[in-house]
């Protein structure tokens, strides 16, 4: 699905004429000028109008045209559409035109993004950068590309910046206001709730939000797909989906680790979902990790968050499509909503150091913190801009326990990053810090949760570029705005219970999801699969190193990258950075094939 949003301005006709013929659908402002141009499935849009006012929800919105019309009729300005955004379950773009003013917004997680550029004297917005690339030539910003080599992700708010110089990404929790004069500006419409709701009140609200989120996907088709890994997150979604009227098709990848405990739990869950069709991808049918790391067909607008599982995601989309599935549920975001790491310990200690001593001791023992590190965790963090300044000067420091402590995991460049790349990233971070950026929440643990949710939104965006050729949309109900707001409103003290995993989610789903899933305290991982896939495809990775576009741009050392790939058993701390570097390489190879955007 691609669409371009145009202001109610005379130049809109000129911009529309530049779009290729495949942008077949057009909706107009009340004035008759083009407003929305693109391609979208009929079941992926709810469109209503009330006199001169119009609104479209693109995606999975748990509402009807009649319900949306009633709400639109009450709005006199685009600002008054906040209630629609706040109260509609699902994940969608909201685009409205009222009195010549346009409002365009995506989701809080960024799984549905909004991007804009200037053209013909006006601002043009779109849900995909590729749509803007049809209208003008785009040039690569090397400093932002270099930041994608960082372990984890670029720090906030560098995460909000596009790798294209001519493109602006809509900031977190904002909508884009486009007046009839052709200008545009982001407007803040949402702030994180105060974490004050007791779990006994929050749990029913979270359950309601999750049920509505799943219903938003299941209500538009006769069959829905879902991951059934055996973990709490995706497996819980399977049981929620089983309560809908849609048929359920589940899929899981059998792990190579003989000690994994997910398979037995998943097998038990399959027996408890007898009305569903279950598919298991074993070692003979599942694509290995890092299959085709040298691919040149990535349609992503930006460097992707991963490359190891790309072929597996395509396997899932292909299999789901063959069973009539168009929407597939995944558990992205649940871990992040329930996060109780260092920033959570800090939040509890700041409220009551004495009351948090038990938690601090337990965390210190589990993570083997020194006394100095423990004291850094419990004392007040510096202002965000100060933390960002300090982090900019430590980009090439090796990661250690101390780097866990702060507003975010400390951004670190891998050993094979060049000094030129470090200088570019350092300058970008320093310039940003000089503007005194405010965190997404004044409470560090809430900021960290939101940052991680934005990473998951990025993952979902990429997954959908892989699923799109098969007609399959990957859906993450835990990333829906209403689910996020409810989870963030839970009282901090209720989010952690010694010996329990995700107590708030457990309280919300008890009675719907079997106890053997909710009471799990173990979790399997993909380490064996990752190393096996790396070994199988190492020759291709080495060829990528020798032909490295990143090295040609001066952003990495070819020798350093070669050494990291040639290690018999790579340092576990390098697995993530290697993934990021390989993903950037594959993306740059795809750009070279497209021969469109320029790097200078």
Describe this structure in words.
The protein is of the alpha+beta class. Helix 6 (199-218) packs antiparallel against helix 17, helix 11 packs antiparallel against helix 16 (444-467) and helix 14 runs antiparallel to helix 15. The protein contains 24 helices and 17 strands. The strands form 3 sheets. It has a 6-stranded antiparallel β-sheet with strand order 2-3-1-9-8-10. It has a 6-stranded antiparallel β-sheet with strand order 4-5-6-7-11-12. It has a 5-stranded parallel β-sheet with strand order 15-14-13-16-17, with helices on both faces.
* Annotation field: number of helices: 24
Helicity range: 40-55%
Q: What is the residue-mean pLDDT, rounded to a whole number?
A: 92
Termini separation comes to 30 Å
Strand order of the largest sheet: 2-3-1-9-8-10
Just name the CATH architecture of the largest domain: 3-Layer(aba) Sandwich
> Which homologous superfamily in CATH is the superfamily of the largest domain?
HUPs
Number of E strands: 17
Oligomer: single chain
Give the overall silhouette: globular
Query: What is the third-level CATH name, the topology of the largest domain?
Result: Rossmann fold
